[in-house]
Amino acid sequence: MSDQLVRAISKDGFVKAAAVSTRALTERARQIHQTSPVATAALGRLLAAGSMMGNELKGDGSSVTLRIKGDGPLGTLLVVADNEGNVRGSVQNPQIDLPIREDGKLDVGGAVGHGGTLTVIKDLNLKEPYVGSVELLGGEIAEDLASYFVESEQIPTACGLGVLVDRDRSVLRAGGYLIQLLPGAPEGIIDRLEKGIMAAGPVTNLLMENDDPESLLRRVMADFELEILETVPVEYRCYCSRERMAAALVSLGRKQLTELAEDPNGIELTCQFCDSRQRFTPEEIRELLEKASEA
């Protein structure tokens, strides 16, 4: 099944929810970055979260960036999602690996770090993007995102994210859910949600049974009647191009561009998200200099 995102609302109007299956796009990220199993799990969780948060944005061209700077060996994790839920991402140290935890699970928290920050940047095509940042709770990512929503946006939120890595290091299952209370929700709603989440069990187990996102939502929210609002495909999508890389070169400034133009080898730029490469010769760099001077 191709990756899909489902958005829903409870019939009583008190809860909105999203769920996503992201096996294919997480596997694409693994292949691009050659990630270790624990790096695959960490980046995969953040990709799933970014997809759900991006899809919720209104307006073409809107985007959300999730950046985790933890004190663990993975370094910085970065995910960018468009308003359709398509995502791209990177991890600073993709080959880092850690021993399996005592419970047999990948040590995502240890790899990300138990200290550090989660920063959310929402670009809504306004003059200034919205930026919110919270301290990491433990680096497991789902709990950190729920904390962000409560602290920065005052929205009670439940988040579950999971990535299962196969023995050959490929991605077996990936996905998650994001459930949020709407204004006016009575106090008892939280208790009902928590009971449903506890009864459903870990996300990875649910994904193994059935990784259809609608099924995932209905099992976690079994005590609620759901109205499905939309079901859309999502994918790993990078927007890099030679033109964008040229613009990035120009942004370095005249002094640095002049120095690059004097190097007989020119320069090769690599996209951090899709690993595509573009080489610029000294002549092409000089042309960029001239165009920048005319602007």
From TrEMBL:
Q: How is it modified after translation?
A: Under oxidizing conditions two disulfide bonds are formed involving the reactive cysteines. Under reducing conditions zinc is bound to the reactive cysteines and the protein is inactive.
- Please give the superkingdom of this protein's source: Bacteria
**Mostly located where?**
cytoplasm
* Chaperone found in the keyword field: yes
A GO MF annotation of the entry reads: protein folding chaperone
Its subcellular locations are: Cytoplasm
Alphabetized InterPro entries for the sequence: Heat_shock_Hsp33, Heat_shock_Hsp33_C, Heat_shock_Hsp33_N
Q: One GO BP annotation here?
A: protein refolding
Q: List the disulfide bonds.
A: 238-240, 271-274
GO cellular component terms? cytoplasm
Q: Which UniProt keywords apply?
A: Chaperone, Cytoplasm, Disulfide bond, Redox-active center, Zinc
| Gene3D superfamilies hit by this protein | Hsp33 domain, HSP33 redox switch-like
Tell me which PANTHER family the record gives: 33 KDA CHAPERONIN (PTHR30111:SF1)
What's the stated role of this polypeptide?
Answer: Redox regulated molecular chaperone. Protects both thermally unfolding and oxidatively damaged proteins from irreversible aggregation. Plays an important role in the bacterial defense system toward oxidative stress.
Which family, according to the similarity comment? Belongs to the HSP33 family.
Tell me the protein's name.
33 kDa chaperonin
Name the gene behind this protein. hslO
